[in-house]
Design goal:
Layout: H1 5-14, E1 39-43, E2 46-49, E3 54-57, H2 72-82, H3 93-105, E4 111-115, H4 118-133, E5 137-141, H5 158-162, H6 173-176, E6 179-182, H7 187-197, E7 201-206, H8 222-233, E8 236-240, H9 252-257, E9 263-266, E10 277-281, H10 283-286, H11 305-318, H12 323-345, E11 350-354, E12 357-361, H13 370-374, H14 378-390, E13 393-394, E14 403-404, H15 411-426
Parallel strand pairs: 3-13, 5-6, 5-7, 7-8, 8-9
Antiparallel strand pairs: 1-2, 2-3, 4-10, 9-10, 11-12, 12-14
Helix pairs in contact: 2-11, 3-11, 7-8, 12-15, 14-15
The structure holds ligand KE4.
Ligand KE4 binds at residues 24, 26, 62, 117-119, 122, 145-147, 158-159, 207, 211-212, 240, 242-243, 267, 401.
Length: 429
């Protein structure tokens, strides 16, 4: 058994000054039956905790560390900026360069507005869609998580699903009244909603590759159908690409599936590990944002120069030839070794994988929507999680999250992950 004494002591201390001892609920390991490990440092695909235990990291800060921790080019760009100033609250050229990169890479993006989190990005996108259409309602999907702004904290995934918080106290009925929830991958349900109130709907917001109920891919025709419904009723299609952006392809899910959203939201990868979010889209829509338009949005640290430089360095490396072929290959290898482990264990489980994202569901499969994911054996997942932790592998402490593969993960580490999963799953029968 690994020694976690210092992490346990840290957690006890943290609980005296931080709610639940963490600054984001899913980190508390609340549903996996052990106290959280406190990180000491990270490099490449590895993390060391404060007890000196070493792990291969398949959380990757929930997606941002697609190059691996401590990438030399990213750190070099950050270090160069540190001596020039860490925050201006004024325009700087790094903001131009990152916005230009995003507009160059992302299909259908003519303008990009930086914010400081994915939550801010999706909140802004919803407000902008309402401002552009003059309509109040929007459609989201069960199990999709778009951050913690009030109107989006309805039937959400990720930490909300993990903690089983049906409807978060503090979100008023009035706020939630304009949020319409449909089952993911159920195009007919969306068509029925629009047939009833389509002219009141400002937008559909969707994770084009769901990552917050575990990884769930769009079934053929689903995204295309959402595009068509939005076109028919004059609503906007918002792709929340905070996870899939610059991961599913360099141009994200829009590129991968060949579908154009009206607005896209980003976070995670574009900050290279620093707090960043972004809304991007056509100029006619984006120019409705203040100061050119009436839809207000602002942020003290928006466009922070250090975060901009980290994002520029990250995207620049991701634009190199062969990067996404390598990410696809590593993701496929991870799915392959996990499926072999499941088969050997002879347990009712299945693996969803898309690109460098994967989830092992404790469910016989298929898992194509929240109702499927919610039926998973989360106690078995907790035993699997603990087994993997003890074997030196960090995975998300929730059935309703993704495994994130980076360019730093080696084939050997992924193969060893499969070997560890065989042993861990033996305890999940
Ligand atoms: P942030 O506000 O956490 O930067 O982004 C919110 C968000 C928006 N959209 C999608 C598709 C997301 O996945 C997220 C945040 N992802 C979670 C992990 N599933 C963040 C981890 C956490 O909450 O601690």
């Amino acid at each position: 058994m690994l020694n976690h004494d210092r992490s346990a002591g840290d957690f006890a201390q943290a609980c005296k000054s931080i709610p639940g001892g963490v600054n984001s609920p899913v980190r508390a390991f609340g549903k996996v039956g052990c106290t959280p490990v406190f990180y000491d440092h990270a490099q490449g695909s590895h993390v060391w905790d404060v007890d000196g235990n070493e792990y291969v990291d398949f959380i990757c800060s929930w997606g941002p560390m697609i190059l691996g921790h401590g990438d030399a080019d990213v750190l070099g760009a950050v270090r160069a900026q540190l001596d020039r100033g860490v925050s201006y609250g004024a325009p700087c050229e790094a903001e131009i360069r990152l916005a230009q990169l995003i507009c160059e890479i992302v299909p259908n993006a003519e303008r990009a507005r930086m914010v400081s989190s994915g939550t801010e990005a999706t909140m802004t996108a919803i407000r902008l869609a309402r401002g552009c259409t003059g309509r109040d309602k929007f459609v989201k999907f069960e199990g999709n998580y778009h951050g913690h702004s009030d109107s989006l904290l309805v039937a959400a995934g990720s930490g909300v699903a993990t903690l089983g918080i049906p409807d978060t106290p503090g979100v008023t009925a009035g706020t939630a009244a304009d949020t319409i929830v449909a089952p993911y991958n159920d195009l007919q349900a969306v068509k029925d909603i629009f047939a009833q109130v389509g002219k009141q709907i400002a937008a559909i917001i969707v994770e084009p590759i769901a990552g917050n109920m575990g990884v769930v891919a769009p079934v053929p025709g689903f995204l295309e159908g959402l595009r068509a419904v939005c076109d028919e009723y004059g609503a906007l299609l918002i792709f929340d690409e905070v996870i899939s952006g610059f991961r599913a392809a360099i141009g994200g899910a829009q590129e991968r599936f060949g579908i154009r959203a009206d607005l896209c939201t980003y976070g995670k990868i574009i900050g290279g590990g620093f707090p960043v979010g972004c809304v991007a889209g056509r100029a006619e829509l984006m120019e409705q944002l203040a100061p050119t338009g009436p839809v207000y949005q602002a942020g003290t640290l928006s466009g922070n120069p250090v975060a901009m430089e980290a994002g520029i360095a990250t995207l620049t490396k991701l634009m190199q030839p062969g990067v996404y072929e390598e990410l696809e290959r590593k993701g496929a290898l991870l799915a392959e070794v996990l499926r072999a482990a499941v088969a050997e264990a002879g347990i009712p489980a299945c693996v969803n994988q898309m690109g460098s994202l994967a989830t092992l569901f404790f469910h016989p499969g298929p898992v194509t929507c929240w109702d499927d994911a919610a039926a998973c054996d989360t106690d078995a997942f907790a035993r699997y999680f603990r087994g993997m932790l003890e074997a030196g592998f960090l995975i998300a402490p929730s059935q309703f999250e993704a495994l994130f593969v980076s360019l730093a993960h080696t084939d050997g580490e992924i193969e060893r992950f499969g070997t560890a999963a065989r042993a861990a799953l033996a305890n999940c029968r």
